[in-house]
Amino acid sequence: MATEVENNAPAAETKEIKEETPADAKAEEAAKQEAAAGDAAKEKEPAPPKVLVHKTNYEKDIVYLYQFSRTPLLPSLSPFCLKVESWLRLAGIKYENVDHKMKYRSKKGQLPFVEINGEEIADSTIIIKELSQKFGHDLDAGLTAEQRNIAHASISMVENHLAWVVMWWRTKYPELVLKGYKVNLQHALGTRIPNGILNFFFKFAFGRKWFQGTKKVKAQGIGVHSAEEINTFGQGDLKVLSDMLADKPFFFGDEPTTLDVVVFAQLAQIYFIDKEVSYALRDYMTESCPNLVGLVNRMKERCFSDWDDICTTLDLNSHLPKPAPEESKDNKEGGKDEKEGDQEKEPDDKDIEKEKADEKEKDKGKEKETEENKEKETK
Q1: pLDDT at 6 (0 to 100)
Q2: E strands, 182-234, in order
Q3: Which of 128, 123, 227 is nearest to 172 (CA)?
Q4: Mutual orientation of helices 163-172 and 213-220 as an angle, nearest 10°?
Q5: Which of 132, 158, 160, 189 has its CB surrounded by the most CB atoms within 10 Å?
Q6: Distance set, CA 165 to CA 82, 123, 232, 241 (Å)
Q7: Given phi > 0 = left and psi -120 to 50 = alpha, else beta, which region is 263?
């Protein structure tokens, strides 16, 4: 019996092992299926959206403005860029211009555009609308419904009619654009190519390829008219604005609104052209609409107290505080060495004076000895 038990024991163990093997295989297979299902589920989960902005190291709630480079006569050649920057300043919103040398455009292909908290906002009207809601700064908060309607109609006239009159002149006379605004293309584009070559290509690029200016002006409708007719259109718009403003400081009273910002940004393009360049629309404005000239200057003072500094230095961020210049380590060490050198020189000078005094005393002693010897000899 003992032998059977001993002999049967291994057999029972072997049987148990054989019976457990398929169960383990099933468990492993189930685990694999669960893992595969988990991987599939992970693959199906949408990846987090990528931050598609140029300024990846942004600060929270800082507006990063992308626009054209500065010029010596006004902060921006684009009325829409000047509109956004003027509004940001009036609203007191913290912003920073990004010096991109006009390389970037928004997803809509436009300038200006802004980035805030990793998101892009394009088109000047949409930028002002969204930032106004975000920061709670509405320049038109005090307007009545009727005034808002007047502002809306006037802005449409300025941006969809008067702006095209100015654009027609620019595409027709690109060389006067460079001269009239004293544009330094080398600085604006951040290149070392000589300005003579850049100016030559600009005449063709601005009017034909860059912005496709001429085609756009014709497609809009302004470009099919004669120069005299187009100037008359522009003068008509200026007359309407002048009559609306009358003798008020701003269109709706003592404080500027969005309409004042829009009109200022457009009229600045007309008014600040160099006086040496002939421009009929500017001459009409200064002679027949002096109150518009006054509005431009008031808005300039309100929005750009640093206007002269901007136009002189062409600094995109003259409104931001500049860090105090730090002395370099070499300069500091150099200063230390000089002081130490001076301290070392001082004892040298004293030693020299002492030596001279000692020499004089020795000479006096020798003279005395000589005299004494002579006296002895005489005796």
Answers
A1: 42
A2: none
A3: 227
A4: 140
A5: 158
A6: 18, 20, 10, 15
A7: alpha
pLDDT category of residue 175 using cuts at 50, 70 and 90: confident
pLDDT band at 12 (very low <50, low <70, confident <90, very high): very low
Three-state DSSP class for residue 65: strand
> For residues 132 and 32, which has the higher predicted lDDT (pLDDT)?
132
- Quick check: 228 pLDDT over 90? yes
DSSP state of 48: P
CA distance 288 to 311: 27
- Mean pLDDT, residues 101-112: 89
Contact between 62 and 117 under an 8 Å Cβ cutoff? The reply is: no
Q: Are 295 and 188 spatial neighbours (Cβ–Cβ below 8 Å)?
A: no
Other CB atoms within a 10 A radius of the CB of residue 276 amount to 8
Estimate the crossing angle of helix 258-271 against helix 163-172, to 10 degrees.
Answer: 20
The 10s digit of each residue's pLDDT in 316-367 is 999 998 877 765 555 555 555 555 555 544 455 555 566 656 666 666 555 5
- 119-122 and 95-97 strand pairing: unpaired
pTM for the complete prediction? 0.71
CA–CA separation, 203 and 207 (whole Å): 6
Of 306, 315, 241, residue with least CA distance to 69: 315
pLDDT, residue 316, reads 94
Neighbouring C-alpha atoms within 13 Å toward the C-beta of 150: 14
Average pLDDT over residues 291-306: 97
User: Which amino acid, one-letter code, is at 116?
Assistant: I
For residues 96 and 130, is the Cβ–Cβ distance under 8 A?
Answer: no
Instruction: Give the closest residue to 135 by CA, choosing from 95, 86, 83.
Output: 95
Tell me how crowded residue 376 is: count the other CB atoms within 10 A of its CB: 8
Cβ pair 89, 66 in contact under 8 A? no
Q: Which residue has the tokens 């007191």?
A: 92
Q: What is the DSSP letter of 211?
A: G
**What is the spatial distance between Cα 190 and Cα 184, in angstroms, rounded to a whole number?**
10
Q: Nearest 5°: CA angle at 159, between 158 and 161?
A: 70
